[in-house]
Amino acid sequence: MELRDVTIADSGTEPAPLRTLARHEPLVVTPATPVREVLYRFSQDEEDAAVIADSASGLPLGLVTLRDMLHVVSFEHADLDDPIANHMLGAPLTLTADASAHRAKVTMAKRGARHLILTETDGRLFGLVTQADLLGLKAGGAEALIASISRARDLRAMMLAVDAVRRRGAELFRAGMGAESLCQWMSGLNDLIVMRIIELIEDEFDLPAVPWCWMVFGSEGRLEQTFATDQDNGLLFVPPNAVNTQSLRECFIPFAQAVNEALHQCGFEQCRGEIMASNPECCLSAAEWRQRFMDWLQIPDPEAVLRSTIFCDFRPLYGNQEPVDQLRAWLVREAPKHPRFLHALAAQSLEISPPLGWAGQFSFDRNRDYPHTLDLKLQGARFFMDAARLWALAEGVWATNTAERLRAVGQARQRQAEELAAEIESFHLIQGFRIAQQLQNPDRDAVNRVDPEQLKNPPAERVELS
C-alpha cells in the first residue's frame, strides 16, 4: 500500500456522540406502505434507505435499502402493491443516539453494515447514520485487516492478524499519521481483535443464559491504546436474583481466564495489577459494580481513589451492552453529587509534580535502570488524563476518551477555543513521543521513558490513507 505526502481529509477524531452525525431526517414509512410508494419516495427524496417504524409509538421495526428493493422487484418479482413490511430487514443494527462514534464504527465494521439506526433511550427512533457519516476506521488499509480478523478461526490466525495490525500501524505512524488518529485507528482494530477472540473462546464454554458483557478499562476504555499495552478488563453479568450471583461468577471465571490467556498469547500483556475479568474482583454482577463505584464515591480514601481512576474509564465491548450503558448513565448522574470524592481525585493528581526544576530544567526521578529519562506517561500524559477524567465526572460527561472529554467539558464551561486546542495538541504531542519510543524500544519498563535531549518532533500529520 503506497503512502504519499498529502493532507489527511479525515483525522479519525470523535468530538461528539452519534446524534450529532445524523445529518438529516431519515426517510420513515409505516409497515403497511406499499413497495411502489417506497420506491417513489426513494427517487423523490434521493435516499438509499428507509426506516420502517410504528406510527403510534415511533419505535423502529425494520430497515429497507434501495439496493435491496431493486433486487426483490427485478429478480424476485415482488408485487409493487406488497406492504413494505414483507421485504424489510427486521431487527436492524441499532444503537442509542448518545453512543460514541467509535462504537458505531466497530459495530458496523464487524457486521458489514452500511446503515445504523439511532434511537433515544426509550427506544423511539432518532435518526439514521451511514458509513459515509463514519469515515475513519476503514482508512489506512484497514479493510483487509478487518477481513483477516473476521476470517480467523483459531488463535494462531488471530496472532497473525494482530501482528499485521501492529506492523501496519507502525507504517502509518512513520509515514506521518498523527497520534490521535492512530490511537483511534488502532483502538478500533484492537476492539475487533478482542471481540473475535472472545467469540472463539465463547464457543468452547457453556455460559449461563443471563445478560453479560465484557468491559474494558484504562487506555483501552479511553480509546488510547498504542503499541505497548496491557489488559485492563472486567465482566458484568445480570443474575435473575441476588442469590445466584456467586454461582454465576464461578461459571464465568473459567471463561474469563481462557480469554485473558488468549489475549496474552496475542500480545496483550496480562495486567500486573490483575485488573482482568478472570479476577473475581473484576467479575461482578451489575448490582455489585454499582455498589463498588458507590463505595468509592462515598468513602474516598487514597487507596480507593487510586483504584477507581482506571475503572472510571470503562466502556462495554462484547455481549449485552445495555447493562454497562446503564451503569455509565448512573455514574454520570451520581458522581457530581460527591464533591469529597472529586476533591480527593484532584488532590491525588496534584501529588504528581511536573518533571521541572526551579529554574525550568528537567527534573529526573533517579531511576537506576533508566537514568536521565522522563516517564512520559506518569509525568506527562497523565496530567491530561487525570484532569479530563475529573472534569468529565464533575460535569456529567459520558465520554471516556481524553481529548473527547476535554472538548465536551470545554464546551460546557465555555472555555476559550484556542486554549482548549493548545491543551489537546500538547497531549497528543506527548502521545506521539510515547508511540515513537514504543516503536524503538520494546522493553515493557522503558516504553514510556525518554531522554529529553534525544527528543525529536514526531512526524506531521500528513499521509494519504490508501
Automatic annotation (TrEMBL):
Keywords: CBS domain, Repeat
Alphabetized GO MF terms: [protein-PII] uridylyltransferase activity
PANTHER family assigned: CBS DOMAIN-CONTAINING PROTEIN CBSX2, CHLOROPLASTIC, CBS DOMAIN-CONTAINING PROTEIN DDB_G0289609
Recorded superkingdom: Bacteria
PROSITE patterns registered for this protein in UniProt: CBS
Protein name: CBS domain-containing protein
Start and end residues of each CBS domain: 22-80, 88-145
Gene3D superfamilies with a match to the protein in the record: CBS-domain
Region called Disordered, residue ranges: 443-466
Pfam families, sorted: CBS, DUF294, DUF294_C
Listed InterPro entries: CBS_dom, CBS_dom_sf, CBS_domain-containing, DUF294_put_nucleoTrafse_sb-bd, GlnD_Uridyltrans_N
Organism: Allochromatium warmingii (Chromatium warmingii)
